[in-house]
Design brief:
The chain is of the alpha/beta class. It is 32% helix and 24% strand. The structure holds nicotinamide-adenine-dinucleotide.
Length: 360
Amino acid sequence: MSTDQLRIGVIGCGAGIFHLEGYAEEPRVKVVALAGLDTDRCQALAKRFDIPAIYSDYQELLAQDDIDAVSIAVPNNLHKPVVIAALASGKHVLIEKPLARHEDEAREMVEAAKRYGKILAVAFQRRTRHDIEIVRDEIAAGNFGRVYYAKAFWMRRSGIPGLGSWFTSKEAAGGGPLIDLGVHVLDMALYVLGNPKVTSVSAATYAEIGPQGRGNWPGRRQSFAPGGPNGYEVEDLATAFLRFGDGGTLLLEASWASFTEMGDDFGIQVYGGNGGARIFAKNYAHVDTLEIYRNIGDTTADSKPRLIERPGHARIIQGFVDGILNGTPVSPDGEEGLDRVRLIDAIYKSAELGREITVE
Ligand SMILES: NC(=O)c1ccc[n+]([C@@H]2O[C@H](COP(=O)([O-])OP(=O)(O)OC[C@H]3O[C@@H](n4cnc5c(N)ncnc54)[C@H](O)[C@@H]3O)[C@@H](O)[C@H]2O)c1
């Protein structure tokens, strides 16, 4: 490993930009190589972030043995092969969410990280939000009493991220808004609740708008579809009810396209015996998103804490670099990524069977 600055490679030039922005804020690293099939987009990024080497084939980037770590932001079906190849080439890995399409793939990835003795971190950057951290800390401190119910949602009016692209291919993406957006809010909800054990899931999925060729995110990803078939093969709305071992429950909703208020909004609400909170992020808002509900004496004393906007990927990257350089535990790691994929699998399974299923 280089001693002064870590040398980083980034694979994928879409969400890869969030990683490049994050690394640009981290003085302990230098991004030295970028890989992606979409040459124009990659060249523009290489120019903007002053990256000396660009490859189309990710294997060429991995063959560069002076690279210490890579960020990977490629379509979901490539997560497993690219991550395992990166670990095998001796690199630490920060992979985009979801860790994988299915539990078996995720498990192989976690095992590979152990086998090669490298860090596997997952970019659930939204859990680093200020509002999320506040609610998590309040619950952990017992300030809401027993939290027995929670709701988590991410709903878009018209936000299919590319009709006919890899996102709407079951094979390439592994699923629709549940695995794309739902996995973020599921992660945030379980994180604020202190990772309660899920014991059962009852779910349903619907594909009502996408198959009509409607509900696309205006102007997004129509021109680039790496190998994706043109059909609409995934859900456009998923809803799930999860039971926890402690008797608590969580209601989850995720949609790319639905006739609802115009927006691209997510939120978490928690209900405790002694207090509660609601986070509502309208169009990715970071401030004015949190309300805390409590009583003082026999009256209500609700509050709206002042929040700061935090760059999510930069904070995940800071933890990733700390893990590599100082051996501090990385969070979220591959195990947490695997846990979320396992639950996503269970949700799809319950929807397919049309009944509640037990989660081991
Ligand atoms: N954390 C977040 O908030 C967030 C946001 C957006 C996307 N993502 C995740 O990032 C991943 C990528 O999504 P996206 O929106 O960037 O998709 P995209 O289609 O915009 O970009 C995919 C990138 O992967 C590259 N690629 C594909 N096959 C490749 C190969 N064989 N070798 C090298 N590069 C290859 C493409 O050239 C492209 O640059 C997905 O897993 C998605 O879930 C996460």
